Sequence to fold (296 residues):
Amino acid sequence: MAIPEDQLSIWANQGAITTSKTTYDQIKAILKSEHSPYSDKNFDVFLQGSYRNDTNVYLESDVDIIIQLSAFHYNLNEIPIEQKAAFSQVFNGGVPYDLPDFKRDVLAHLQERFPGYIVQGEKAINILADGNRRSADIIVCLGYRNYKYFYSVGQQDYYPGIWFRDSDGINIINYPKLHSENLTAKHQGTNSWLKPTIRIFKNMRNKMIADGIFEDGNAPSYFVEGMLWNVPNDKFGISYRHTVANALNWLCTADRSNFLCANEQYKLLHSDSSVTWRAEKCTAFLDAACDLWNHW
Fold:
């Protein structure tokens, strides 16, 4: 028996909105305080993840926030040698205030403003929840530019991303703004069916974890979003039962080796990247989802 429409309709609903917005507004104001040790630097603060993308469900708690210094790393591999030379003439100096300095100052500032509530994680600074404030993960990073072309400062184009290092010193490059923009475009292209469907699949994941048929941590929200971003637009619509059944049938028979992340900069499934999903974990997720669907 398939999962009934009324259950899917419940799972399609968005999770907490007010408390996440309040949390983000509070932390953003503190990060941008004129009393911070980095207040004279050029930086930006913005959301990433489920709350930015309106795909959050009720069991999600962390608000993902990025604070990005204006300095950037870059990739020039796709542009010709004369454009690389033009780039080098413009950007030929070092960065006097780099990521370690910025992260040190952000951490010190947060420890001062949230004493006893700061935990340094592998990738992010975690601010623990307190009262109505939800827990938050703060990624401290530089910008990243994957260049399409460069002739001059006024004539250039690139894919904008972020660059940081985890606690083991491994470089991580991701594209949260492209991810969000492409999800929104896909959502519009499916007549607003994509994001509720993502929330259904995330709630199915949580149900499968609770029932012990799928391992917690093997299907992060980012990858579930990317997986459904690859589903053709004509598979969405009519009803949630119709959409979920069509998506599952298509995903289980498709050649998933060519799937892209929603940011279109990486393959979704890969074995040796920190920003991609392991193929076997995707397969395990789909097997468990089909089992849940068929034995409701």
Notes: The mean pLDDT is 95. Strands lie at 43-48, 63-75, 118-120, 125-127, 136-152, 155-165, 171-174. The chain has two domains: 18-174, 180-294. The first helix runs from residue 5 to 11.
